[in-house]
Amino acid sequence: MIKWNRYTRLKRVEYIYASLLLLLFWWGLSLLINNTAFPPPHHAMKSLIEGLGDNLLVHLGVSLYRVLISLFIATLLGVSFGLILGKNRSLDNLVAPIIYLTYPIPKVVFMPILFILLGIGDLSKIVLITLIVFYQILVTTRDAARNLEEEYILSVKSLGANAWELYWHVYLPGCLPSILTALRLGLGTAMAVLFLVETYATQKGIGYFIMESLSRMAYDDMFAGIIAMGTLGFILYLGLDLAEKKLCRWVKY
Amino acid sequence: MNNHDFLTIQGLEVYYRQNKQSIDALENTNLTLAEGKIGVIIGPSGCGKSTLLNVIAGLHHDYQGEIFIDNQPPKVYSDTALILQEYGLLPWKTVQENIMLGLQIKKLPKTEVIHRTEEILEQMGLASLAKRYPAQLSGGQRQRIAIARSLVLKPRLLLMDEPFSSLDALTREEMQEYLLNIWRETKLTILLITHNIEEAVFLGQEIFVMSPFPGTIKRRIPNYLAGSYDSRGKIEYLNMVNDLRSSLQGGKTNDKME
After folding, report:
1. Which chain B residue shows the shortest CA-CA distance from A175?
2. How many domains does chain A have?
3. Are residues A120 and A161 in the same domain?
4. Inter-chain CB proximity A173 and B92 less than 8 Å
5. Same-domain status, A30 and A111
6. Closest approach of A28 to chain B, Cα-based (Å)
7. Residues of B in contact with A149 (CB under 8 A)
8. Which residues contact A246 (CB under 8 A, 6 or more apart)?
9. Residue A87 within a domain
10. Count of A-B CB contacts under 8 Å
11. Is it the case that residue A131 has pLDDT exceeding 90?
12. Would A148 be classed as within a structural domain?
């Protein structure tokens, strides 16, 4: 398992200092490039504040809904199947070749067919994001469950635990750190796919807002959208940090 | 078969399937242990000691022959507690939660679960560790918690798989005496695996010597020196240790050793 904590869990001062440094870099770059397509940060900020008063929040809300539903379904399915496969070797032997063959396929290529089959509404978008994140969580969870110490399983079995109790007391908590790591990686992927699906056949969502600003050559708005999307991802990321802090207190020992 | 025997094993055979080959883990293994006795199984690694313990604990159902604990097969008998080599404490549960787990699985009412957990922590002087995670404890403390987790279930048979092997020499002796104290108070039937000859002689009222390929019990030695602190270092004790050592090395005579 990758140790994320050191890189992600920052102190408040560190957040402020890193944000300021990034803004300074952006500002310097905008002076250097000197092109209306790359406005300085304060122009984007001004546009962002105006946009929040207007309809930017609606776009953000729609995007948040799409990404949260997708992450939720993907986690629910990925964790359940992952734990079941990790626990049952013979079942895993049957399913593993299928996962192995389909895992490397970039699932975004299914976007056109999903649009055709499921329509251009939210459903096709959510299914695509879910599908991609599901694979990441499934494989990570299964591998974590497979590699769980036999000793934990035997000792709880010897207390008379049934299958359900083994999942609840041993497999799920034992795999949780890996699951949260997979969710972090999955969140990054989900945001990228979200942008992609929102640039097609929709009038709502932050991805649409960015591309629509581009077509109007409203670059300040476009960057406001980029900031908004970045912030959305960041807040979700913080949520995962918080979840890890609450649920995996034992890991730090 | 003696009617007073609490644990009886007769003609036990266990096979493992590996790469389509059937491997003989235990063959024609016989063992009896009276209620309230401490039995010690000793043998080289790979002789099937852990397999034997897992079968008695009811974790491994695929065996031939007879095993009875208080006249019930392991699958049915529920008053067995098992302590594994690395203690088997769950790192994601606190000491308190680890101890509660067995009671929760037995579906006891919540108030009783809490009451019995607090009681055992208090009795064993572990109350101050209740909120800690296993990784925050020393090896000796973890072993005590593992024992507490077993005792809270009020078992009649306690199985231990090399319980003290990863402890340093001093803690190991301390824990051996700790276990004896618990045995004196509870009169539990204990069956313990070790690869340490001195430990076998100090703890085992009955010593079972195992040999590998395939694993079987080849000798049973009643040991009257068990549990007496003064006997450590006496001639009789050293003779017993030597006898056991030669038995483990395939019955070579004493004068050829060391």
Report:
1. B92
2. 2
3. yes
4. yes
5. no
6. 48
7. 86
8. none
9. yes
10. 62
11. yes
12. yes
Sheet bearing B80-83, strands edge to edge: B80-83, B157-161, B189-194, B38-42, B206-211, B216-222
Specify whether A89 is located in the same domain as A180. Answer: yes
Which tens digit of pLDDT belongs to each residue from A83-125? Answer: 999 999 999 999 999 999 998 899 999 999 999 999 888 999 9
Which has the higher per-residue pLDDT, A15 or B17? A15
Question: Could you give the CA distance from residue B216 to residue B210 in angstroms, rounded to a whole number?
Answer: 5
Q: Is residue A252 part of a domain?
A: no
**B chain contacts of residue A179, beta-carbon cutoff 8 Å:** none
Are the CB atoms for B26 and B214 separated by under 8 Å?
yes
The verdict on A21 and A46 lying in the same domain is no
Nearest CA to CA, how far is B105 from chain A (Å)? Answer: 6
State whether A30 and A73 are in the same domain: no
Residue A6 clears pLDDT 50, i.e. is over it:
no
Helix, strand, coil proportions of chain B in percent (round to 5)?
35, 25, 35
Say yes or no: A122 and A9 in one domain: no
Work out the angle between the directed axes of helices A206-215 and A56-87 (0-180°, nearest 10): 130
Confidence (pLDDT) at A2 = 44
The reply to whether residue A154 touches residue B80, judged by beta carbons under 8 angstroms, is no
Whether residues A160 and B81 touch (CB distance < 8 A) is answered with no
Rounded to two decimals, the ipTM of the complex is 0.81
For residue A109, tell me if it sits in a domain.
yes
Asked whether residue B77 carries a pLDDT value surpassing 80, the answer given is yes
Look up the domain containing A15 and give its range: 1-34
